[in-house]
Amino acid sequence: xxxxxxxxxxxxxxxxxxxxxxxxxxxxxxxxxxxxxxxxxxxxxxxxxxxxxxxxxxxxxxxxxxxxxxxxxxxxxxxxxxxxxxxxxxxxxxxxxxxxxxxxxxxxxxxxxxxxxxxxxxxxxxxxxxxxxxxxxxxxxxxxx
Length: 145
What we know:
Layout: H1 16-57, H2 62-99, H3 102-144
């Protein structure tokens, strides 16, 4: 039987160029996470302003305000989960670059992998809902003629 040599990524050597690249990556990941948190804050402010406008225009119509609040809660929850994961990845990658810490590097890459899995699943869900909506519109239009 032939035995193949198993290579482990845990035996990788980190060159100064790789360390610099990981450090740069951690900075951009952290910046993106902070911008995501700021966007979530703007969503809260925007929702509050829109609820105030709806309440004033429709004399307290709770149905529209309720749907705005529900949508904002879902959006902010998803944003927080994604951005907390991204921020943690940046923190671990920064620690890995500064201290040549393989455990922190593994944790950072794991957090990035989790971020992209969640993001990919969300994109699949949104695309599926758009396709269902499009097919529904086609079905409604086809029934008219």
